[in-house]
Amino acid sequence: MAKEETQAKTVREYRTEELAEAAGIPVRTLRFYRERKLLPPPRREGRIAWYDDHHLARLRTIAALLERGHTLGGIAELTAAFENGRDVGQLGELLGMGSSEETRVRLTPEALADYFEGEVTPENLAASLDLGYLAVDGDEIVHVSRRLLDVSSALVREGVPLAAVLETGRRVREHADAMALLFTGLISDHLSPDALTRLRPLAKSVVEAELTMAMDRLLASTAPPSGQTPSS
């Protein structure tokens, strides 16, 4: 027990002046942020307010978002959306995820803003939380899938609005759920239930092949006839 106590992480606390100095801001700015509810309430001990490293991380996040062009009003809305968002424990429950092949990604709010420059709005954040793409874990954000994060940020960099990407993701999930149900039914009808995990890669191969051929058919149908240019 003594060993566990010595290994326990010591929580550092700061008085108001100490926190402001650590964050590199005036005390009046710290008090202003607290009044705007950009910071969670401090621990009170009599008339002394005690802050901790979570408050310091929040102040650094606010500074980083301000540098990226966000307004204090926008940051307040984002903060409220984060604090009302699903936590990591609810993420797996929402998506029905047990042991998933997807790799989760931990991000700071400013790192998320860098992934989707100018597109991290309260509306898009709320949609991402609702879809289960994002969850909140203390001062960090967790994205459910490295692959989805990379694809969606690549689309946004190409000029596709994040709101459109998220709506498409919602529609893709409906089709993906239907395909998963088809394959599950096929295996359950003809094989034992334990074959589902073993044959799961086959389902992925079928979906990838069919999507590839569907894209080929679509591109062929929109291509100009042989010998003609798109403008002719």
Summarize the structure.
By secondary structure, this protein is mainly alpha-helical. The chain has helices at 2-7, 16-23, 27-35, 53-67, 72-83, 88-95, 109-115, 122-131, 146-158, 162-190, 195-222; strands at residues 13-14, 43-45, 48-52, 105-107, 134-137, 140-143.
Quaternary structure type: single chain
- Which range best describes the helical content: under 10%, 10-25%, 25-40%, 40-55%, 55-70% or over 70%? 55-70%
Termini gap = 81 Å
Give the integer mean of the pLDDT values.
83
Strand tally: 6
Q: Segments where pLDDT lies below 50 for 5+ residues?
A: 1-9, 94-98
Shape: elongated
- Category from helices, strands and their pairing: mainly alpha
Series of secondary-structure elements, N-terminal to C-terminal = HEHHEEHHHEHHEEHHH
Q: What Rg do the Cα atoms give?
A: 24 Å
The biggest sheet amounts to:
3 strands, antiparallel
Strand content: 5-15%
Outline the structure in words.
- With 232 residues, the protein is mainly alpha-helical.
- Helix content is 62%, strand content 9%.
- The strands form two sheets. Strands 1-3-2 form a three-stranded antiparallel beta sheet. It has a three-stranded antiparallel beta sheet with strand order 4-6-5.
- β5 and β6 form a beta hairpin.
- α8 (122-131) packs parallel to α10 (162-190) and α10 (162-190) crosses α11.
- The radius of gyration is 24 Å and the shape is elongated.
- The termini are far apart.
